[in-house]
């Protein structure tokens, strides 16, 4: 829901940074992998309750995620790069709530499992439609420079990162945030399945 607005804000600085990185001979795939490693460091940080360090790792991951896309648009978008990017993104999204579960399994266990469960719904409906849209040749006018069809929803990347930031800043409220955001994710999943089915049937 907020992704379009966020893209407008960060597009120019990302393009400028990507041009500098490109001149240094760094590939988009290298930035993707480096970003995932930085993001994965949030897992032990969360497990040992270093929440501000985890927030920094999450922020660095998201910066790299923006940079790899901007780099890909300079160097050439590829299916392999798109596959790598989306695969590592979904792994990253799941490891954050798992980190909160490790920090306090008795309190955070069920809420964390519910949030990961909700991510399976948003992720599977997103990717399943992307595959079918590609087969049908359905164009996406909203995200023209993506390597696969990006289906919008109530909870997209921007909302997910804001959720993670809130969890890191107020870890004592993780269960409340996880249940609320998980419910929003399920609403997104239902909407995507309905509209995806109607679009493909038409």
CATH homologous superfamily grouping: CDP-alcohol phosphotransferase transmembrane (TM) domain
| Estimated structural class | mainly alpha
Which range best describes the helical content: under 10%, 10-25%, 25-40%, 40-55%, 55-70% or over 70%?
over 70%
Total count of domains: 1
Q: Residue-averaged pLDDT, rounded?
A: 89
β-strand number: 0
- The total count of helices amounts to 8
**Biggest sheet architecture:** none
Just give the CATH class.
Mainly Alpha
Order of helices and strands: HHHHHHHH
> What percentage of the residues does DSSP assign to strands (E)?
under 5%
CATH architecture: Up-down Bundle
Shape: globular
Round the Cα radius of gyration to an integer and report it: 17 Å
Describe this entry's structure for a reader:
With 202 residues, the protein is mainly alpha-helical. Helices cover 81% and strands 0% of the residues. The chain has a single domain (3-201), classed as CDP-alcohol phosphotransferase transmembrane (TM) domain (Four Helix Bundle (Hemerythrin (Met), subunit A)). It is built from eight helices and no strands. Helix 2 (28-40) runs antiparallel to helix 4 (51-75) and helix 4 runs antiparallel to helix 7 (157-169). The model has no long low-confidence stretch (mean pLDDT 89).
């Amino acid at each position: 829901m907020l992704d379009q607005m966020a893209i407008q804000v960060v597009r120019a600085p990302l393009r400028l940074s990507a041009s500098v990185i490109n001149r240094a001979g760094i590939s988009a795939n290298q930035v993707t992998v480096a970003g995932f490693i930085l993001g994965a460091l949030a897992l032990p940080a969360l497990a040992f309750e270093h929440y501000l360090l985890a927030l920094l790792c999450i922020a660095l991951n998201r910066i790299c995620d923006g940079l790899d896309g901007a780099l890909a648009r300079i160097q050439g978008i590829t299916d392999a790069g798109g596959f790598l990017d989306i695969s590592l993104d979904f792994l990253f999204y799941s490891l954050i709530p798992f980190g909160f579960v490790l920090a306090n399994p008795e309190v955070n266990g069920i809420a964390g499992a519910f949030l990961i469960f909700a991510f399976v719904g948003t992720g599977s409906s997103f990717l399943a439609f992307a595959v079918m849209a590609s087969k049908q040749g359905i164009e996406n006018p909203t995200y023209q420079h993506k390597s696969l069809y990006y289906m919008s929803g109530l909870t997209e990347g921007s909302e997910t990162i804001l959720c993670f930031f809130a969890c890191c800043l107020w870890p004592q409220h993780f269960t409340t945030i996880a249940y609320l955001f998980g419910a929003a994710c399920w609403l997104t999943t239902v909407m995507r399945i309905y509209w995806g089915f109607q679009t493909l049937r038409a």
